[in-house]
Amino acid sequence: MDDATSESAHARAADDIPARALWGTYATGLTANSVNMMLKVVVPLWALHLNMSPTMIGVAIGAAAVLPLILAIHGGVLMDRLGTRRVTLCFAFLTTVLVPLYPAMPLVGAVVVLQMLTGLTTNLSWIGAQTLICQFTKGDTAAIGRFSFWSRIGLLGAPILIGAIWDLFGAEVAFWFIGACGGLVMAALFLIGDPQTEPDAVPDAPALGAGALAPRLSDYVKAFSLIGIPAVAFIVAATFLRISSSGIQTSFYVVYLDGIGLTGTLIGVLIAASEFAGSFGALLAGPMVKIMRPHWVLLLFAAASIFFISITPLLGGILVLLFIASALRGGAQGLSQPVMFSILSRAVGANEQGMSIGLRTTANRLATMIVPVIMGALADTIGLEESFIIVGGFLVLSCALVGLIVRRIPGFST
């Protein structure tokens, strides 16, 4: 079957989905991503409020990736085994409960622990949204692009709104508001309707008991064995590099902007500019893969997103230039996301979608754990501005290296 016929078949499959279920999936992506982004805006500000050093800020930001790094694969497997919707509901509920605890425990150790816990719950809620859309659309780039568009629409308002709440009402109200938004994720999942409307639903899924929830070594072995598929190996490498720009944006980008005197609201506006551009970048993914091979689209725009965030200290604190660079970074990031999902969803079977997204998320979280810690250490030793250039330059060169390797792999040579 050629690419055009395959895309047509995928589109017909998407058309067969009940409208309520499809829009519920879009809403799940929108709300889950928004909660994640709001936390990434306020936690660095909360760390500064607690007078944490750059190194400790890096550790706290990186802590959010620790449990997802270990358990993302297991979470994806649970969704394949028990049903995506009900597993995601559990993690959305936990997010709602945990987030208001930040201001209740204004201690450095508490920040690190809460980052670990909410990092797990918010990431697995987002994994659930991604798994649902990949299962529903079976790899159709255009349909996944629409999901990415709606997911990023929430990110347009989320950072501005939470930045304004921080400025006007303070930390406690900001964290309580984010917790309340976790309830919107649950509402979106209920909108999908009966769990059996899920694609590849598990009709006789086991109860959510300790036996069903316990991680299994065999699941991890099977997940990592997927790296033997060239397309999956490529996605794991490319997703690590791509998400590194987000690791910069959600850690020391916020710290740098606060340091040059920008308010929480203005910081939110700059991040929102990135996500606004990313929303429309996602819609360009379908047309772009018709003129360029998907793997080159992914690598090219991953490198672009890293470049435009890394030059932040070179822009002299000029708001217009910061706005343009943020928008370019977001546009590149948004365009690459549906391409990444499409390549991965077509590379594995329907009953391995959650597992494969868990594997990709493991690479994501490894990057978001390592990058803030390295940047924090560099900021303490040679300076914050220099850390942007060094880390960004290394990551762009790594994208070029992956491209050179990909050219030698059969199926990726053109």
Classify the beta-strand content into a percent band. under 5%
Number of individual domains: 1
Helical content class? over 70%
Which structural class do the helices and strands define? Answer: mainly alpha
Task: Give the C-alpha Rg.
Answer: 20 Å
Termini distance? 19 Å
Query: Rough shape?
Result: globular
CATH architectural label: Up-down Bundle
| Helical stretch tally | 18
Contiguous low-pLDDT stretches (5 residues minimum) are 1-13, 199-203
Total strands? 0
Please explain how this structure is put together.
This protein is mainly α and 414 residues long. The protein has a single domain (15-201, 217-406), classed as Up-down Bundle (Growth Hormone, Chain: A). The chain is built from 18 helices and no strands. Residues 1-13 and 199-203 have low confidence and may be disordered.
What labels would you give this structure?
414 residues, mainly alpha, Growth Hormone, Chain: A, 18 helices, 82% helix, globular, disordered N terminus
Q: TL;DR?
A:
The protein is mostly helical and 414 residues long.
SSE topology sketch:
Elements: H1 3-15, H2 19-49, H3 54-63, H4 66-82, H5 84-98, H6 101-104, H7 108-137, H8 141-169, H9 171-191, H10 210-213, H11 217-225, H12 230-259, H13 264-283, H14 285-291, H15 294-310, H16 319-347, H17 353-381, H18 384-406
Helix pairs in contact: 2-7, 2-8, 2-9, 2-12, 3-7, 3-17, 4-5, 4-7, 4-17, 5-7, 5-9, 7-17, 8-9, 8-13, 8-16, 12-15, 12-16, 12-17, 12-18, 13-16, 15-16, 15-18, 17-18
